[in-house]
Design a protein that fits this description.
By secondary structure, this protein is mainly β. It is about 0% helix and about 55% strand. The strands form two sheets. Strands 2, 4, 5, 6, 9, 10 and 11 form a seven-stranded mixed sheet that branches.
C-alpha cells in the first residue's frame, strides 16, 4: 500500500506563495488519478486541483493561482500556490486513486493572514 505524506504548509501573508509536496512511499507513475483537496473549519472537504489521465482541473476559486504537478521520478505530487488569500486557509490533503480506493495523506495546515 502506498503511504502519502504532505509537507510545505505554514503561515503566510495574503499575496504570498507556498509549495505543497506529497511524497509517496512507492512508485506513482502508473496512477492516473490524483489530486489536492482542502478542508476549512466547519466546511466540507473540496477538490482544489486534480489530475485525471492527461487532464488537469482546478476549482474555480483557485484557477490562475494554483498549479498541480507531478514528478514520477521522485514519486511526488506538488501544489504550487500563488497569490494566496485568507479564504485559502485550510488543511490540505493529497489523494491518489489506487486499485479503486483513494489513499490519503495526513494533511498539512495552510494559514493565510490578511
Amino acid at each position: 500500500q502506498v503511504q502519502l505524506v504532505e509537507s510545505g504548509g505554514g503561515l503566510v501573508q495574503a499575496g504570498g506563495s507556498l509549495r505543497l509536496s506529497c511524497a509517496a512511499s512507492g512508485s506513482i507513475f502508473r496512477f492516473n488519478v490524483m489530486g489536492w483537496y482542502r478542508q476549512a473549519p466547519g466546511k466540507q472537504r473540496e477538490l482544489v486541483a486534480g489530475i485525471s489521465g492527461g487532464r488537469v482541473n482546478y476549482a474555480d476559486s483557485v484557477k490562475g493561482r494554483f498549479t498541480i504537478s507531478r514528478d514520477n521520478a521522485k514519486n511526488t505530487l506538488f501544489l504550487q500556490m500563488n497569490s494566496l488569500k485568507p479564504e485559502d486557509t485550510a488543511v490540505y490533503y493529497c489523494s491518489i486513486l489506487i486499485m479503486g480506493s483513494y489513499s490519503w495523506g495526513q494533511g498539512t495546515q495552510v494559514t493565510v493572514s490578511s
